[in-house]
Structures are given as structure tokens and as C-alpha cells.
Design a protein that fits this description.
Helix content is 5%, strand content 57%. It is mostly beta strands. Strand 2 and strand 3 form a beta hairpin. The longest helix has 11 residues.
């Protein structure tokens, strides 16, 4: 494939497109989202030019698949395994390439989100109606992003305009008294663009947990066979403006408020808030130089209740800043930058320290050498609590032909301890150090057919995680006592057959506990060792602008264990979803989805129920792009 070289020429050297040399932790201009990937290098490049394993989900695919939630949308993505605690709005853990659920860095429009106390991001509270596009980059990327990027990086882009002024609107009703509504306006002109979108969801949910009360308790440690509802209201506002050929800027705000009822012996209701705000300024003094500065804020706020009575607060507020320069030097592209982050927690639980500051400096070099391409990066992070950490990565690609590429990579990564691991009263250990990892990967990808309509890839990888933080009985506190060795293989096929769009992916994992204790060689908890997904969709044109669409998805996951001892086994399962769409004209459409049509009972976390057969009927207004 020659796309890598052409991309560097187009994006890294000539810089004729403003979005091609992108600033750090920022999205490209709205008009370019459909053409480029930015998360794998912090610069813009086409998806087939990336050396990392990348999956992109765009707005068209979101609307075609009609997912019930962001975790539902990510289900079946190569390398992804999910564990959910009882349906809509309930706590959901995402394991990327078998690593821990807090080993994934999650960004919204370039701003890092998540809880600094417990670790991890509340993906279940981010409505799909607010999402324009998702980039999932698999593999270690601490050398570009710092802590947490051991398993990979997930970047979510909120809704962007695709043309001149256009309103959008949607309503849905479905099983479990589910009601949804969304509305927005967006547009772009010669110099500026804007987008405002609001969404609301309310559902009675299902009985989240079939737990057992103490003594001998299990699961949620209570038996409360009622429906556990969920409500979420969200708003995004953003815009950008190009002042002249050299300067442009963007600003955005996202906020989602959720109310979640669940089953628990200590708490059974939570008010959660996810909030992101950011500004970006970009200066391009020449075709070979782009400078950018970004500032942002994110918040993960949670108040919990027991039978309506206030119980606890765990709030994380994060301030972020970054500068980055991209310089075309010879035939290559050098990127260098500095990130700054301040985490602050507020809680009715007394922590010994309630804030910390992280600083990180990084540099990256990208270049093509004929049929070869390289990407190398190095980063030094300094944390005010545990000190410094250096990470690096090197990726190489070799175009064996115009349609076949071989890739290989090696990288290191780390994850800083959470505030709970460091300071939670009666549990934390201020002496714990970061978890570290080493990963190696080999991949092969190809494109075939007259219009390159057949795209496939194979990636094999191994990750070793050292100094995993776990409870150390010898000191009665968390310690760096565990290790893990994870091997895996991912396969992806995207093709068109007899007018059907077919997408298939499969993941095989061997996630082993490598700790020197009784659990050595056991499988890591809650990761399915095999998973696969197949999507098939076809459109039937009826004349004029009206058309029918028909689609189906089948997802299968193998067995997993719910505990370290591998004594509690959760069986494998397969889910079948069907969807039907009718485009009334170029703007109005009706959609009907039927999920888990065979009403399969299954669990991804022991004692926590999952939705059975359910339906959703939607009416949408969305003018053609």
C-alpha cells in the first residue's frame, strides 16, 4: 500500500489541508472527521495509513446499528470485552485486549475523562445521540497520552455539522417503558461552524441483580426483585471559526446528567454527571509548521443514596492544558508537546490528599522510506505523588504490495495508582507505584477488489503487565504484587457481497494471571476468551428518495470466570439483533430494532441480569448530508 507515504506527503509535508497537522489532544476541523484518524498519532492521517490497529465507528454506522447505549455500540469491537451490572445506565467495565478496565484511556473531543478515585470512565452515561464518531486505537499509547493507555485509547467525538444549517430531531419508544428524544441544529459556512444537540432518555429498566443477602451473600448482597430505572439528559454546544489562513479556534461543552437506580446493600441510587469543556487555538505560520494550544476541563461527579437518603459523594474535577508543535522536516513529520493535568477530588470520605498534578513531555517522529513507514515516540511523565515514568513505542509498516501491508510494533505503558488505591481510609497504601506494561504486536492487512471493497486485517499481540495493584494480605493494603500475561489474536473483515454490506470481527484472548501465588495461570476475571460479531445490512431502493433497509447482527462470546480463583464460571452466549428501516424521503425515516430476539438469558458479571428480548421504534428527521 502506498497510502502511508501519500498521507505523509499530503498531511505531514505539504500541509495543504488545515486539519492534516493537528494539535495535541484535539479533534480536526468538523469537515474532516469523515476522512482522517487522529488518535493513533495525535496528527491526522487516513485510516489505512495508520500503523496501529484502529477501529472507527461513524455516525452512519451508529444510526444503522441502532444501539441502545455506548457499551452496546462497542460490543463486538475487536479486542473489546464488556461486563455490565444489570442493564441500562448500570456500571459497565470495558476490557481492551484483556487488560484491566482502568487500563483504557477515554477522551471526549480530546479531553480525558474518568474518575480519579475509582479509575475508569462511566461509558454508560454517554448517550449515543451525542456521538458523531468513535476511534478505538488498540495497543499501548502511554508514549503519546501518558497514564492509563495500556490497553489502548478510545476517543469519542460529539456531533458535528455536515453541511449548511440543518435541524435534526428524533423520538423513540420501546420495551421496558423506554422513551427517548433528541433535537439539534448544526451548520457550517465558509469560515465557521456550530452544533447544538440535546438528548433525553428514560427507561424503567430491568431487575438489575438477583443477589443474595448476608450471611452467605453474593452479587449485590441484597434481594430486591424490582425494576431499576435509568434517566439521562445531555447537551452539547460547540463551534469553530477560521480567522484567516493562519489562525483558527474551537470551543465546546458537553454535559450529561444521569439518575440511576440499582440494587445494593449500602446504596441503591446515584446521581451522576459527566462534563467536558474545552477550547483550542491553532496557528499555522507555514505549510510545514503547525502550532496549537488547548485548555480543558472534565468532571466525573457522583452522589449516592440509600432509599432516597443521601449517602456519599465522590467527585473528580480535572483541569488540562497542552501545547503541541508539528514540523515537517525533510521527508518526515516531527511532533513535540507538553501536557499538564491537575486532578482534584471532593468527597465526604476523608482522603489524606485530595489533588495531584501530572506533567508530560513527548516527541514523535513519523516518516516513510519507500515501501516502509515508521512511527516512534518517547514520553516522560512526572506525577506529584509517585514521581516519574518514561514510556516509548516504535511501529513499523512494510507495504508488501499495493494491497498488502505488514506491521510490527513494540511499546511500553503505565497506569498511575488511583486515589482509592493510595489514600482510601482503611484500605489505601501511599507507597504503591504505577502499573507498567510491555507489548509486542505483529499485523497483516489487505485491501482487494475492483473498488477495494474487501478489507481485512489480522493482528497478534502479547502484553505483559507488571506491578499490578492488588490486595496484599502481608501488609493488609494494596501493593504491587500481581502480574499478567495476555496473548491475543484479532481478525476483521469488511466486504460487500451480493449488495449486502458485511462486517465481521473475531477476537481470541488468553488472559492469564502470572502472579507468584495460588492463582497463577488462572484466567483474568470477566474477560471472554473468544468473541465474534457479524453485521449484515442491505438497502432496497423503492424509487425517488424512499428506500427500505434490512440488517442483522449476531454476537457471540465464550465463557468467562467471575473470580480470581476461577471457581465461578459464566457461560458463553450468543445474541441476535434485527433491524428494519424505512426512509420516507431524504430527511425522514422510521426504524425498528429487535434485540436479543431469541430472549437468551446470560450474565457478564455474576448475579447481574441482562435485558431479554426488547424492541425500539424510532422516528428521525435528518436532512441528507
Amino acid at each position: 500500500m502506498s497510502s502511508r507515504a501519500s498521507t505523509l506527503r499530503a498531511c505531514g509535508l505539504s500541509l495543504t489541508l488545515s486539519a492534516c497537522a493537528l494539535p495535541t489532544f484535539a479533534a480536526p476541523a468538523a469537515v474532516d472527521l469523515d476522512q482522517v484518524v487522529v488518535t493513533a498519532t495525535r496528527t491526522a492521517q487516513t485510516q489505512d495509513a495508520t500503523l496501529a490497529a484502529v477501529t472507527v465507528i461513524d455516525r452512519d454506522e451508529i444510526e444503522r446499528r441502532q444501539p441502545s447505549s455506548l457499551p452496546d455500540l462497542l460490543r463486538g469491537t475487536p479486542g473489546v470485552s464488556l461486563a455490565n451490572n444489570g442493564g441500562a445506565g448500570k456500571s459497565t467495565s470495558l476490557f481492551l485486549r484483556g487488560t484491566e478496565s482502568d487500563h483504557v484511556l477515554v477522551l471526549i473531543d480530546g479531553i480525558k475523562i474518568g474518575s480519579a478515585t475509582s479509575g475508569g470512565a462511566s461509558l454508560q452515561d454517554i448517550p449515543v445521540e451525542q456521538i458523531e464518531r468513535i476511534e478505538i486505537v488498540r495497543g499501548p499509547f502511554s508514549s503519546l497520552y501518558g497514564s492509563e493507555a495500556i490497553g489502548g485509547v478510545i476517543q469519542i467525538f460529539t456531533r458535528r455539522p455536515q453541511g449548511p444549517f440543518a435541524p435534526s430531531f428524533g423520538v423513540s419508544i420501546g420495551s421496558n417503558a423506554t422513551r427517548r428524544a433528541s433535537a439539534g441544529v448544526a451548520g457550517k459556512g465558509e469560515r465557521g461552524w456550530y452544533s447544538i444537540n440535546a438528548a433525553h432518555e428514560d427507561t424503567d429498566g430491568i431487575n438489575a441483580c438477583r443477589g443474595k443477602p448476608s450471611p452467605g451473600g453474593a452479587g449485590c448482597f441484597t434481594n430486591s426483585p424490582d425494576r431499576d430505572g435509568y434517566r439521562n439528559s445531555s447537551l452539547t454546544m460547540q463551534g469553530g471559526y477560521r480567522f484567516n489562513e493562519q489562525w483558527d479556534g474551537e470551543a465546546r461543552v458537553f454535559r450529561a446528567e444521569g439518575n440511576n437506580h440499582y440494587d445494593g446493600s449500602q446504596n441503591n441510587e446515584a446521581d451522576n454527571v459527566q462534563q467536558v469543556a474545552g477550547v483550542k487555538l491553532r496557528y499555522q505560520p507555514s505549510e510545514r509548521v503547525t502550532l496549537s494550544a488547548n485548555a480543558g476541563h472534565s468532571a466525573d461527579l457522583s452522589d449516592t443514596y440509600k432509599n432516597g437518603k443521601y449517602s456519599s459523594t465522590f467527585d473528580t474535577r480535572r483541569q488540562l492544558g497542552s501545547v503541541q508543535g508539528d514540523f515537517g522536516i525533510g521527508e518526515g513529520l516531527l511532533s513535540a508537546g507538553f501536557d499538564w493535568q491537575r486532578d482534584e477530588i471532593e468527597s465526604n470520605t476523608a482522603y489524606a490528599r485530595d489533588h495531584r498534578i501530572l506533567r508530560g513531555a513527548f516527541a514523535q517522529w513519523q516518516r516513510s522510506f519507500g515501501a516502509h513507514a515508521v512511527q516512534a515516540s518517547l514520553r516522560r511523565d512526572d506525577d506529584s505523588q509517585f514521581g516519574g515514568e518514561t514510556t516509548g513505542s516504535a511501529l513499523w509498516g512494510w507495504d508488501l504490495s499495493d494491497s498488502l501491508r505488514l506491521t510490527a510494533s513494540y511499546g511500553t505503558a503505565f497506569k498511575a495508582p488511583t486515589f482509592n488505591e493510595l489514600y482510601y481510609p482503611g484500605y489505601g497504601n501511599p507507597r504503591v507505584q504505577p502499573e507498567t506494561s510491555r507489548s509486542v504486536e505483529v499485523g497483516l492487512r489487505g485491501t482487494h477488489g475492483a473498488q477495494r471493497q474487501h478489507v481485512w486485517s489480522l493482528n497478534a499481540f502479547q502484553t505483559r503487565v507488571d506491578d499490578l495493584i492488588a490486595y496484599d494480605a502481608s501488609i493488609g493494603a494494596p501493593g504491587n504484587v500481581d502480574r499478567a500475561r495476555i496473548r491475543g489474536l484479532e481478525a476483521v473483515l469488511d466486504t460487500r457481497l451480493a449488495q449486502w454490506e458485511l462486517r465481521a470481527s473475531a477476537t481470541w484472548l488468553d488472559p492469564r494471571n502470572d502472579s507468584p501465588n495460588a492463582y497463577r495461570d488462572n484466567y483474568l476475571q470477566r474477560r471472554a476468551r473468544q468473541s465474534a460479531r457479524v453485521d449484515a445490512d442491505r438497502r432496497f431502493q423503492l424509487g425517488g428518495a424512499s428506500s427500505w433497509s434490512l440488517g442483522a447482527s449476531v454476537y457471540a462470546a465464550g465463557e468467562r470466570y467471575d473470580d480470581l480463583a476461577n471457581t465461578r464460571r459464566l457461560g458463553g452466549y450468543a445474541l441476535t439483533d434485527l433491524r428494519l428501516g424505512y426512509a420516507i424521503d431524504a430527511a425522514w425515516s422510521l426504524q425498528l430494532s429487535a434485540n436479543n430476539v431469541f430472549d437468551r438469558r446470560y450474565e457478564t458479571a455474576a448475579f447481574y441480569n441482562q435485558p431479554g428480548r426488547n424492541y425500539l421504534l424510532s422516528l428521525r428527521y435528518r436532512p441528507s448530508r
